[in-house]
Each structure stands twice: as structure tokens, then as C-alpha cells.
Amino acid sequence: MVGWIKLLLLALYLSAMLALPDSQKCSKGFNLKKGKCIDQDECEENYPEDMGLCGKNAYCVNTIGNFYCMCEKGFQTSEGSTNFTAESSLTCKAVCSIDETNHCGNGTCHIGTSGPYCACQDGFTNYGNKATRCTALDCDAFKDTWDLKENVAIAHNLLTQLKRKCEDLTKGEDPEDFDDPDLLWRLLLVIDQLLLTGALNENRKVSKFLDLVESALNLIGPFIDAGRIRRSYAHTELDLLNHKGAMPPQGVAILSTKPVTLNITLETVSGDPSLYPGFASVSLLSYANLETFTDGFFSGINPQANESFVINSKVVTVSVTNTNTSHLEEPVILTFSHLTRGNGRLHLCVFWNASNGNGSWSADGCTAVESNSEFTVCSCNHLSTFAVLMALYDVEATFELQVATWVGLSLSLICLLICILTFSLIRSIQSPRTTIHLHLCISLFVAALIFLVGISRTENQNACAVIAGLLHYFFLAAFCWMCLEGVQLFRMVILVFNTNFRTLYMMTGGYGVPAAIVAISALINPKGYGTQRYCWLNVDFIWSFLGPVCVIIAINIFFFLITAWKLAQKFSSLNPDLNTLQKIK
């Protein structure tokens, strides 16, 4: 019984299947033939009337189970695509008639045998790829470079060649010799020579040099076939990434040289997709010794009080084909290795701003997101030449040091005052030697008193300069009186008669010599007196004090050695049995 029921159900199913139309037996886009589903060629079935499927200036392309429409050469849809589906209701129009400006940029669109092409206006180029839009090309960087070329002989031919090729491109001429693999090598060799010869001895030349390097890399980059190039020379190291294709690149690129690593999005490299020229190039170029030429140009930075800077990284240039890099949507990240470790030091991310005078470092648009003793990570919203500065601060005087200074100087003043009173009032001990002691104590007393009350009085720069001059004078006077004391001791030992100085000679040596030194120093460099923190000599002017002091110390040592030698001879003649050590004692 059960078997009969199964046979009945099978018969009913087969009858129903035979009653269905053919179109419902296979999926859409397939036909049932001889019991099998075969792909339906919609394009062949409608030929030559397939114009009804895709419209004018398009043809049908069959696929398994479906079809799509392809625009003929020189045509595309209003959305910029060359293929579409029939359901989208799009049509193909001549490329040049859709949006000439969007397709060619600063050029005119034409239809040739191989499709549309762009004829660029003067000052613009598509680097020989006529199918891509025209972009601006600035050749000004290759002009007026005589002051760089005259320092390096091989630079003349290369810069002249780059200038000529750049101008040819902007006039619509076909590029030649740009596929020369040695062109990039020659550029790096010229950069090496400029760094080696010290030609970049002015910030104006540095600005011109950096502009030239960036323009040259942007000019050569589109003609490099290799996807990536890494090259290292004596004074330069280059990492270059190149992309060519119909669609703009996407993702993140990481470039690195020994001192620096760069993280940059490829969208930043190529720029606005609607302005994509068919290629994108990014390069990271580090210089071995450019920091020595650019150190000190910090006018673009507003330092805090008592703050100075020094470059603590190698200098690098980041160059991309995107011409709009003044304000990036995605910042670039640079990781710099420090030249010297600076524990607890503030590190500042900076770029070379050529528009600030003749060029200087500036921190605008760059921030340090991470920093330690070994490296600093910088984030910048624009592209240029970058470096890391280390801030230097003068050592602040602690409270304990100030207390020790006040207590020590106060005790010194008391002791010096006692000595002055003793040498001047007690007549029984007065002599030329005590006169020298008296004036030595007076000089030290006045110098210590001025130091105690005026060393930090920097509110009025003129008064501060006077205080610094007085300190300079009285400290030199103290050393001069010490020198006179050594000379007086020498005369007492060597000369038997007339061993004393005349008072006029002593006053001239003790007060006249330091007065002459201070007067000459003030005439040579009047701005050398007084600093931002203390009323003392500037660091660059300190030898006006240290020089005379070293001379005085050398004279004292000379007279001391002669005096000791003469005394040893006299003791030897008085008592021949004394040994050498006892004679010296």
C-alpha cells in the first residue's frame, strides 16, 4: 500500500514539472536546452539591434548569466566610468563633451585614434602621458642657482639640464632623457657635493637649496619606473616610493632612512582624487650634516625666558606629488633619532620656513606627540623640511644655593672689613706689603658687596651694564694686587736694597691696569656687559676677564718659582748639610 502511494506522488510531480514553461526551469540569464541550463547570450540575440540594450556609442559584453555595456573609445558615462549595466539607465557620451576641465585640468581635450588625450597649456604638463590631466609644474627653483653652481662644478650641467627639461615639459614637448637611471644618482651626487664643500653657509642659500631639492625630486619622480628606490651616499640617504595606475593609491606608506622614519597615507601623497594625474610619488631624503649649516636660525620660534635651542636630529626633506600640502587632512608622522641624549630636555618639532626672511626654523603646524631621551615622534599637518630641536635652559639657582651665597658673602664681607680696619689703623704693622694687603682687601670687599646687591638687578639694562663693568673692574683689581704681592715678595728675596715699590707705581699697577682693560673692553664691545639673567659679562665676551686673569696667574707662578729657587740656594749656602726637600720647605 505504501509503495503505491509513493508511485502516485512521483507521477504527479513529473506531470507538474512538464507543465511548467521553459523560462521557469533555469535561473535568469540561462535557457533550458536538451535538459540543461545554457547561458543566454543577450548580446548575440539582440545583434545588431543591441543598441537598444546599451544605447549609442556603446556595445554589449556578455557574461555568464548576465551582460554589461562598454563605452567605445573616447566615450564614458557622466559618472566617469566606461562600463555600466543596462538597468542603470546610463549612456555613453564623448569624454571631451562631459567635463573638459575635470578631465584635462589646465588643458584642452581632444579625441584621437587611440582615444581622448589632453593638450596642456603653458606652465602645465602631464609628463608625457597624454591620457592624464594636466598639472602645474614650477620651474622657478632651477633659476638663479649660480651661487650654488659656482661652488660645485658638476652641479652646473645637471641644474641646467633639469631647468631645460622642466621648461620643455611646461611647453608641451615630449620628455626625453628623463628615464635615464643615472639622473637620480647625479642629483644625489650634486647634493652630496654641496654639503661637502660648505656652500650652504647662509640661510638664504639653504632655502634655495631645499626648494631646488624638492622641485628636482618632484620632476624626476614621475619618470621612475621602479616602484621603490633606496639609495645611500656619503651625505645623503633616499627612500622613494612610486605608484602608477588609473586609480589613486590607498593605504599607508612607511619610508625610512637611518635617522628618520616617515608614516604617510597614500591619499596624502596623491592628493584630491579628482585631480589625480595618473601617478603618485613620495620621497624621504635625509642629510648627513645639514644641521650644522641650519643651526642657529631660530628667529621663527618664540623661546621662553632663558631658553635657547640646538638641533638634535638629522634634517630631512619630505616630497610628494600632491601640490596642495599646506594643510593636510591627515598629518604625517616622523620619528627622529636624537643626535645626543637629553634626559629631561624639551624637544621641539620644527620645519624650515623659507618665507620667514631668508629662512629659519618654525614650529607652526608641528607637534611632538612622544619624546624620550633617544627619539621624538612628530606630527605635522604640512610638508617641508623637518628636524627636532632640543631646548637648553640656564641652570636655575636653587634656594639653598642662594642662601649659601648670601651667608658666605656676608661672612666674607665681615672678615674683609676687619682686615681693612686692621691694616689701615694699626700703624705698627704698616709697610708696603700691608699696603698691598689693604688694597687687595678693599678690592675684594667692593667686588663682593656689588655682587651681593647687584648681580641679579637686570630690570634696567643700562644699570645692569654699569654693575657688570664695576664687577669686571674690581675683580681684575684684586688679581692685579695679588700679582703685585707676588712681585713684592720676589723683590724682598732677590734684592738686598730698595725692595719696596713706590706708592705711585703700586696704584698704577693695582688700579690703573684694570681700568685700562675695562675701558678697552667697553669700547670694543659695549653690549658685552650684562645678560638676561645676571649683571656680568656675556659668554662671548668672558675672555676680556679670563684672559688678563690667566696672564696674572702665569706671572705669579713665574715669580713664585724663581723666589723658591733663590731661597733654596740661600739656604744651601747657609747650611750645606740640608737635603733638597728640606731646602724647598
Secondary structure: helix percent? 40-55%
Strand content: 15-25%
Low-confidence stretches: none
Q: Overall 3D geometry?
A: rod-shaped
The structure class reads alpha+beta
Task: Explain this structure.
The chain has four domains: 22-97, Laminin (Ribbon); 100-136; 140-393, Sandwich (Chondroitinase Ac, Chain A, domain 3); 414-580, Rhopdopsin 7-helix transmembrane proteins (Up-down Bundle). Helices cover 42% and strands 21% of the residues. It has 17 helices and 24 strands. The strands form seven sheets. Strands 12, 13, 16, 17, 18, 20, 21 and 24 form an eight-stranded antiparallel beta sheet that branches. Strand 12 (228-232) and strand 13 (236-244) form a beta hairpin.
How is the topology of this model organized?
Layout: H1 2-19, E1 30-33, E2 36-39, H2 42-46, H3 51-54, E3 58-63, E4 66-71, E5 75-76, E6 83-84, E7 93-94, H4 95-98, H5 100-104, E8 107-112, E9 115-120, E10 124-125, E11 135-136, H6 146-149, H7 153-170, H8 182-197, H9 203-220, E12 228-232, E13 236-244, E14 252-256, E15 260-265, H10 266-270, E16 279-287, H11 290-294, E17 307-311, E18 315-320, E19 332-337, E20 347-353, E21 360-362, E22 366-371, E23 375-380, E24 385-393, H12 399-425, H13 432-454, H14 461-494, H15 503-524, H16 543-574, H17 580-584
Helix pairs in contact: 8-9, 12-13, 13-14, 14-15, 14-16
